[in-house]
């Protein structure tokens, strides 16, 4: 059974940094694409970044490009999101998710971690 557990959220001032972690367990993720998504109050959930576990190719939403970096540590089975130059509009609950190769959707989700950026 796949489990994804996020950590690292918190309260930070504008311009600050946070690193989110997502501990993944339950299977080998070499054939998966991992993603970070976020949901702010009153808004739809939105894509933030993705990474292919094997090969490490990445994609980013335009709103975070140049400020956020997604990475993974295969030895620790952990996904990361380094967030720099944070803005109040980055305030949201951040979720990690896993998409099996060939699947049309992300079938596994973590419980989320709150990120709050104060102005």
Describe the 3D structure:
- 0% of the residues lie in helices and 54% in strands.
- The chain is built from no helices and eleven strands.
- The protein has strands spanning 3-7, 10-13, 18-25, 32-39, 46-52, 58-60, 68-73, 78-83, 92-100, 108-109, 113-118.
Task: Tell me roughly what share of residues is in helical segments.
Answer: under 10%
Average pLDDT figure = 96
Distance between the termini: 40 Å
The number of distinct β-strands equals: 11
Would you tell me the structural class of the helices and strands? mainly beta
Give me the number of helical elements. 0
Give me the Rg, rounded. 13 Å
Regions with little confidence, pLDDT below 50 for 5+ residues: none
Beta fraction? over 45%
- The SSE string, one letter per element, is EEEEEEEEEEE
Let me know the largest β-sheet. Answer: 7 strands, mixed
Which outline best applies?
Answer: globular
Write the topology of this structure.
Elements: E1 3-7, E2 10-13, E3 18-25, E4 32-39, E5 46-52, E6 58-60, E7 68-73, E8 78-83, E9 92-100, E10 108-109, E11 113-118
Descriptive tags:
mainly beta; seven-stranded mixed sheet; globular
Quick description:
The protein contains no helices and eleven strands. The chain is an all-beta fold.
